[in-house]
Amino acid sequence: MKKKIVVFFTSFILFVAAAILCTVYLDPFFHYHSPLNNYYYVLDNERSQNIGIAGKFEYDSIITGTSLTEHYRSSEFDSIFGTDSVKLPFAGATFYETAELVRTSFETGHNLKIVFRSLDMNHLTDDKEWVRKDLGVYPQYLYNHNIFDDYQYVCNIDIFKDYLIPMLKKRFVEKIPGGHTSFDDYVYGEYESGDLISEREPLPIADEQKELSEEEMTSLRENVEYNIISLAKDHPETTFIYFIPPYGIILWRDYAVNGDLHKMFETLRISAEMMLKCDNIKLYSFADMTEYTTDISLYQDEFHYKNELNSVILQSISENRQLLTVDNYEEYFDMLEEYYTGYDYEKLIKENK
Prior knowledge:
Blueprint: H1 2-26, E1 40-41, H2 46-56, E2 61-65, H3 74-81, E3 85-89, H4 95-107, E4 114-118, H5 151-154, H6 157-172, E5 179-180, H7 214-234, E6 239-244, H8 249-258, H9 261-275, E7 281-285, H10 290-293, H11 308-318, E8 323-324, H12 329-342, H13 345-352
Parallel strand pairs: 1-5, 2-3, 2-4, 4-6, 6-7
Antiparallel strand pairs: 7-8
Helix pairs in contact: 1-6, 2-4, 3-11, 4-7, 7-9, 9-12
């Protein structure tokens, strides 16, 4: 009996050791090294794989931001801007989470030509170091430099089951050549038209539109300074392209009805004022493309739009259209606020019920 116990525990220890060595060797999250040439790496986990891609892959530009950048194709971006990019989106990301990726890229020796980021206005007043914990377990062990918590990676049964075994199967059974999911296909999908009307009532715009509180103002300035401005100042050789997405009319309706419309434009004005002081930040806005923003058939929800608009955005930027400058941003946001304040949202809801 004792011999059987010894054999069992010895076998168990050897199995665990082999699994640990296999994780370190194959490294599906690129924590220790870049991809091995003979194995195929499936990219499908933004919060676990992006940080490794940022540090271990070779590239000269980054496409990043929230889910609004998931459905870009890096090949289209590269053909327009002459780059060799990686796409590193974080669905629901805070500005801090996105900025940490960019910082990691610079810290690991990448000389970036372009950083292309969505400017998600609903996150501008977040705390400057806010990390979202409501989207599942945040893999902090992949982001820090503490080897003592790496056991959460190398002793992870889910990683062994969901990544290592499939990689070994592709290599030795299916004989699939080495490589990885392309950045065209990485978390790529199609947004379909969504039901934006049925749960909304034809309500009037709120009589009283809120102002930014002192606390929100402080958070806004700290967030923009730490996660946008400081990166641009530290890396004047890099062009940082930010774009305000063409959010749908339903989002503007919700802000207006809830009394947050003026506050949102106040947020955008202050952010633009700060950002446009940096020569290597280019800020574009597509919120005035009302031929798109008022067409609810193009939107899955108030934030997400069909992929065809991504090509419109890239082409417009390449032609320097929709560019905000120190000379036009105030007039631009005044015009935009007037338009979305005066829009007949009650009619919109009634006609589409």
